[in-house]
Write a sequence for this structure.
């Protein structure tokens, strides 16, 4: 009788072990260029050794395109969802959500399964930015960029918001423009400000939370325009702007090289 109980207990423990193991590694991740097990582990708050064990890997070497199991919760996309809404609903950084799914566009369909990244210290900082005044140059850049995005694209899709921020970053990187976010935004050409919100004072209005998320994505390197230097409303009649190669159209906004 005692032996039977021990066997039964062992079976229950084994079953629970399998159950928790399957839950712990519930997602699949496609390895990208420059990935490492350490980077992937950090994204999902795990260790490289745990991922090696779960995938029966004998070395740290992984290859782009390789599909591996990762320890994460998953989310099934619902009608009306967006990546921004999903990140807010699950309290994860939007950029981390993109990285966890190698998802750099905004196309979603109901029933699609997404990996949810872990809440790292960096992600926590990114998703809890508020309107409290900061003193560091980085946070000042974020606040100013978010205010520009709010003034220029508050009623536009999220991709357009990120793209506005990306244009500013692209100008900073280009030697033909000023060398800082603040200098780019307040730059004058021919006696006129480059950005209308600076001219009309809308740049001084508080930013929205979604614009701050967009600014964070732009500052962390996401550029849906792939290098655009200008943007404008599609109602403009400026022939010079329309003559430039179009990089992206999002909502009513046009981004050009």
């Amino acid at each position: 009788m005692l032996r039977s109980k021990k066997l039964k207990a062992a079976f229950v423990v084994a079953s629970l072990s399998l159950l928790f193991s399957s839950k712990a590694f519930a997602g699949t991740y496609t390895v990208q260029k420059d990935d490492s097990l350490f980077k992937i582990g950090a994204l999902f708050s795990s260790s490289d050794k745990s991922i090696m064990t779960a995938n029966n890997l004998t070395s740290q070497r992984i290859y782009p395109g390789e599909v591996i199991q990762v320890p994460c919760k998953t989310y099934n996309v619902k009608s009306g969802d967006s990546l921004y809404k999903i990140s807010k609903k699950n309290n994860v950084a939007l950029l981390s959500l993109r990285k966890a799914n190698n998802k750099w566009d905004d196309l979603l369909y109901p029933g699609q399964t997404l990996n949810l990244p872990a809440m790292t210290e960096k992600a926590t900082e990114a998703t809890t930015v508020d309107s409290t005044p900061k003193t560091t140059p980085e946070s000042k850049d974020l606040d100013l960029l978010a205010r520009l995005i709010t003034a220029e694209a508050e009623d536009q899709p999220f991709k357009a918001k990120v793209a506005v921020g990306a244009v500013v970053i692209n100008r900073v990187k280009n030697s033909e423009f000023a060398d800082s976010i603040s200098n780019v935004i307040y730059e004058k050409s021919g006696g006129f400000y480059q950005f209308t919100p600076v001219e009309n004072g809308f740049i001084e209005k508080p930013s929205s939370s979604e614009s701050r998320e967009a600014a964070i994505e732009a500052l962390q390197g996401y550029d849906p325009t792939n290098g655009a230097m200008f943007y404008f409303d599609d109602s403009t009649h400026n022939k010079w702007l329309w003559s430039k190669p179009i990089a992206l159209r999002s909502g009513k906004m046009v981004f050009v090289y």
Observations:
- The beta strands are 27-30, 67-70, 73-76, 113-116, 188-189, 192-193, 230-233, 246-250, 253-256.
- The chain has a mean pLDDT of 85.
